[in-house]
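dude i think i finally got it to work??
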Amino acid sequence: MMALMMSLVAMSIDIMLPALSNIGADLGVQRQNANQLVVTMIFLGLAVGQLFYGVLSDSIGRKPAIALGYMVFFAGSILAILAASFPMMLAGRLLQGLGVAGPRSVSMALIRDRFEGRPMARVMSFITVVFILVPVIAPTLGQAILLVADWRAIFAALLAVGVISLTWFTLRQPETLPAARRAPLTAARILRALREVLGNRTALGYTLMAGLIAGAFQGYLSSAQQIFQFQYGLGERFPLIFAINALAIGLASFINGRLVMRYGMRALLRTALLGLCTLSILFVGVAWATEGQPPLWLFMTLLMPIFFCVGILFGNMNALAMEPLGHIAGAGAAVVGSLSILLATPLGAAIGQAYNGSITPLVLGFALLGLGALGLMRWAEGARTASTPGSQPVG
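look at this
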């Protein structure tokens, strides 16, 4: 149930990737790269919305806050279905992002109410397995819908999934935040949570690190349709290649869930990050040698292990960022999620908008942001080591 709620973000993005060109053509878009804004706007709404829902859930409870988010998501879906212009479509996507921020961010706080440390990382990893299966099937579902209907039917399908998800949640999930632990709804609480995250080197370091890795991944999401459908001429076979990459992330998340209890979050995170940086630098060399046009088999041979590393990183980064914030789980999840996505969105958009018919902007983005994330991890862990001389990490 939690996986379905959290994966509504991925479904809202990935199910329409095959339809981006159709949407742009019907709504009068002149530049192919502008179609990527259909992806970008939902991330922008998600970043802004998370600040609101996390604090709201600390005040009125997890379930009412999530239900409100679903209502906004439904409104955005209807607006997208009725869109008569590209700005109207982008407004609908922004509302979808604002709405889905409710179930996405508050679900993390709900999980944090019950788990922490390695057990939380383990739960998040198994949720991520289901979360990643959505990108495996979503583009194929979107392509299938396009075979029998137009792109508006894709938004109708999203609306139906949202209704099913909300109904399941309402009937099955008990409230995890008792009234005695609730806090008043004030802007000051967001500012206090923000100050606490900014003042905690561990939380801030892993939050920014998550933003850099997510930025590289957003760059991939924004440009994947153009790379595979047009640059490599795959056409309707694009969902198959996209699914293979998604499976690499899902496999890594599943393996992480089994290994994290034995080796700890930090050891796995460090190994995966070093692997991502090494592979990305190698990838930059391949892109330079082939003028950004490597054969598809070589492109996939390098891309899949990079995504395997990304799968290890995602669950552990968020868990480590939240580890010092258990006493402000709702507001903490809001700030961590919002800051990371606010950082990731312009970075991902820049990578996507730089697409020039070659893979070079994408692989260069992975290399630079991966190296930046490695520096942030060293910075975050430096504070932890200095504060506990002679001790060993337990995460």
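The radius of gyration is 20 Å.
im so relieved honestly
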